[in-house]
Amino acid sequence: MIGRKMRKTIGTFSLIVFFLVGISVWLIHRENPNNSYRAPNTSPAAHQIKIDEYYRVETMSAKFSQIVYDDDAGNYIVFTDRLVKVNWDDRYIIGSYLVELNSKELEYLIVEKETREVTTYSSLKEFRQEKKEKGIELELKSKREFDWF
Fold this sequence. Notes:
Keywords: Membrane, Transmembrane, Transmembrane helix. By secondary structure, the chain is α+β, with helices and mostly antiparallel strands. It has helices at residues 4-31, 124-134; strands spanning 47-50, 55-61, 64-70, 76-80, 83-88, 92-98, 106-112, 117-121, 141-142.
């Protein structure tokens, strides 16, 4: 028979293990909410998000992310360098970005992928209206919700 003291010790140990496992799962989910792929050696401050064969998001630091078009034929376009949120479909890339590096003020953009035409909006209201007019049914997502390469 297990003594009362031993049962208490086992119970306490079980609670500690349960707590540590729960905290670990929570921390992983917080940093990677959709259980997205994380390539080796990537971090929140150094990764790429592949949109398609020509477009990608490059993150070089905690505050510096850019949407890039590169066709490997010398055509290289950077659409913004302070990207906060992004999303895309077959026709468009949408994003929000900081107006200034240490600002919290956001502006918005829509990139038409086929023509590489970009339109910027200084207010969320304008951005939402244009999305509606173009039939874009995307919502902006945090960069951490996508696969990192």
